[in-house]
Amino acid sequence: MFFDDALMANIQREFPRAQTDPWGKRRVFLDNGTGTLVLKRAADAQYLATTDWSANPGDSFPESRKAAEFMSAGLTAVADLLNAETPENIISGQTATSLMFQLSYALGKTMDSRHNIVATYYEHLSNMDPWRELVNRGAAGELRLVKLRPDGTLDMDHLRSLVDENTRVVTFSAASNLLGSKSPLAEVCRVAREAGACSIVDAVHHAAHGPLDVQAIGCDFLVISAYKFFTPKFISFMYGKRERLEELRSYVAGKGHASLHGRWHWGSPDQAKFAAVGATVDYLAQIGERTAHRYTGEFPQYTGRRRLLKMGLDAIDRYEKGLSRMMMEGIDGVPGLLELPNVKRWGLYDLNRLDERDPTFAFEMTNLTGKEAERILVEEHNIAMRSMLYWSMAEEFFGIDRPLRASLVHYNTPEDVALFLRAVREMGKR
């Protein structure tokens, strides 16, 4: 495994509920795709910023000045995380869904019934319904959906065939929240750019799993949601190219907004959420510090915290590939999902293509209903995961009804995988 024992012990201290539940009982948390556990230092930073520095920014008294500092530091942290040109390129919002709707409304003002929008069949509905809304009210003519291959990856030939001179938006997920399939980000953005279309990346599911570089990707917009990468809920962020942010007109209240942030931000910011995000980004950079000896000469295009973040998130990606291999082929004498009885799998289960997926696994027990399997996992094995609708278009495309989803992140351990696989093996024998 890519993490040494000392680093793994430190990670467990940062997430006190990763290994034990609030009652002190050993558990396995595999519901990370719905929302990760919160980093302790992020929660502490939010608490202190709430209790000690609760004020709107923009005035001269100490609390107001400090609130402005938290906001500025948080936006700078996200800019570093995504390698954005400046913090001004980062727009905050309450949720990814609200940011997508805000962006779709702004883009809708530039479109008419001649124009089409291209999305994919593994989008989360937060990146589907905003574009459906434009078509439904006549602001755009058509929403076209890219098909998936049988293994759950994008059919890039089909995508290219859908994009034409009337395409104004190509919007797609960095990784499927149900299948774990990763998109070829730069390639899709290049297709959009060559057609003169705006490219939008929904990176909500992928942000916890590996490095993102908006300049290398070449996207016009990219959206992430803090609670999907170890931070408390109800703050999200959108990267936008400056020229795009300047040319579009968002729906905002108030008058005379001179700055980009003023023209896009809604309402009064919660300085405590920005403090929490800053703490999370610093934690990810510290993983880069702890693994820097493995990266001599790598990532020379980055400096300072940005380089540490690239190393830290690359280390997370490499560690999680090891977990994915164990999930598929097994560990400690227990077969993996590729061989366990009464398991029907969805998505990419190819040990030679681990680079093309995040550690998110969708499957069904053929001998149990989804809710029966969920109950057994929770009540008998203290494994937190669920069977539900995941707001994924992949469910419609493949005809999947409430599958189980095991989604891992870097605080999960090989022992977690072994406990999970033993539970699935036991369920398969019922």
Distance between the termini: 33 Å
- Unreliable parts: none
What's the helix count? 15
Net shape: globular
Mean pLDDT: 96
Number of strand segments = 13
Q: How is the largest sheet built, in terms of strand order?
A: 2-8-7-6-5-3-4
Describe the largest sheet: 7 strands, mixed
Would you list the SSEs in sequence order as H and E? HEHHEHEHEHEHEHEEHHHHEEHEEHEH
Level of helix content? Answer: 40-55%
Please state roughly what percent of the residues sit in beta strands, choosing from under 5%, 5-15%, 15-25%, 25-35%, 35-45% or over 45%.
5-15%
Alpha-beta classification = alpha/beta
Radius of gyration: 22 Å
Provide a descriptive summary of the structure in words:
The structure is a single chain. Helices cover 41% and strands 13% of the residues. The protein has helices spanning 5-14, 40-52, 62-82, 96-108, 129-136, 156-162, 185-194, 214-217, 242-247, 260-264, 271-291, 304-329, 370-381, 393-398, 414-428; strands at residues 28-29, 90-93, 116-120, 142-146, 167-173, 198-202, 221-225, 236-240, 343-346, 360-365, 383-384, 386-387, 404-407. It has a seven-stranded mixed sheet with strand order 2-8-7-6-5-3-4, sandwiched between helices. Strand 5, helix 7 and strand 6 (198-202) form a beta-alpha-beta unit. It is globular and about 65 Å long.
